[in-house]
Design goal:
The chain has helices at residues 59-75, 113-118, 122-135, 152-158, 176-179, 185-194, 198-206, 213-218, 228-238, 250-257, 259-267, 269-307; strands at 11-16, 31-41, 44-50, 96-101, 106-108, 141-145, 148-150, 162-165, 172-173, 224-225. By secondary structure, it is of the alpha/beta class. Helix 1 (59-75) packs parallel to helix 3 and helix 6 packs antiparallel against helix 11.
């Protein structure tokens, strides 16, 4: 038998190097990796990202990811008629998008924090547009979690419709508690809307629990366990290739299903400012109540001394 060969890529996009990151997790080469789209089977599109050492979500990673999604949608649009210009390009049928990493240990280890905080409007101009696009993408999406998915890496996986996890490697974790970062409104709401078990949500947020594959499956964070073969089988069993994005309403249906998260993502800074204002008001109210209580206790002490 002739040796099997990998399908040629439909496209490969380089991830530009970050000019602002000071993290040791980012590459110092002329680019920080690639996004490559292949079609291992008809109607299955595999988007593989590679950004050593752990696929940190830098501004450049996010914008390249978003561009890859845009190109795939364009490739699967209804082809123009013969009379339309520009000339017809190769058309690909609508199907399902599977995203994964070529790095065995990591799907994504989350944000590159130094570059995130040093990039103006990083959340509203880089991260949130990517998440909105994934959450409302007009084709079915599946995150194939080959390794660890932490913090924003796990959140990105949650923006997909389905998740399949490697049963032998990796943990899923929200570790914001460990490094002292609050969850923004869309970061929290995506788990409220997609995770049915409250104890799973509580363990993620308030305990920074690291879920292995079996725990993630039992807790409702993933839909199945396995690798690419299992992901393809899952797609076939679910009938996603039969319906998927063919009727043109798939993305709109998801936007309505996850209205809360979509709304928070679109609010951007306004939602975060409101959350910050609410936190300040809560803190100010708590301080006032404590001061009143302290004054009452001092007054009780003065009255007690006066009786003596």
């Amino acid at each position: 038998m002739p040796p099997t060969t990998s399908p040629p890529p439909l496209f490969t996009l380089p991830i530009p190097s970050s000019s602002t990151s000071t993290s040791t997790s980012t590459s110092t080469s002329s680019n920080s990796g690639t996004f490559t789209l292949t079609s291992p089977q008809p109607q299955i599109y595999l988007l593989t990202f590679t950004s050593p050492p752990d696929n940190r979500m830098t501004p450049e990673f996010c914008t390249t990811f978003l561009l890859a999604l845009d190109i795939l949608e364009d490739l699967t649009q209804t082809p123009p008629t013969q009379s339309e210009t520009p000339p017809q390009k190769t058309h690909h049928p609508k199907g399902i998008l599977i995203t994964t990493s070529s790095l065995p240990k990591f799907y994504s280890n989350g944000l590159d924090y130094p570059s995130a905080i040093s990039t103006p409007k990083f959340f509203t101009s880089k991260l949130y547009p990517l998440w909105t696009r994934l959450l409302t993408y007009p084709l079915p999406t599946l995150a194939l979690l080959n390794g660890h998915a932490f913090a924003a890496g796990l959140m990105t996986a949650m923006m997909h419709d389905y998740r399949i996890m490697n049963p032998h490697r990796g943990y899923l974790c929200l570790n914001e508690l460990e490094f002292g970062a609050p969850l923004t409104p869309p970061m929290a709401s995506i788990f409220r809307e997609k995770v049915a078990r409250h104890d799973t949500y509580r363990s993620l947020v308030l305990e920074a629990k690291r879920f292995n594959a079996l725990e993630a499956l039992e807790g409702g964070l993933v839909d199945g366990l396995g690798g690419m073969d299992e992901a393809v089988a899952f797609v076939g069993e679910g009938g996603m290739l039969v319906w998927g994005g063919k009727t043109g309403v798939y993305g709109r249906l998801k936007a309505e299903m996850f209205r809360e998260t979509v709304g928070f993502l679109e609010e951007g800074d306004e939602g975060e400012e409101r959350m910050g204002g609410e936190e300040r008001r809560r803190r100010e109210g708590a301080v006032r109540r404590v001061r009143v209580w302290e004054e009452e206790e001092r007054e009780k002490g003065r009255r007690g001394k006066a009786k003596l």
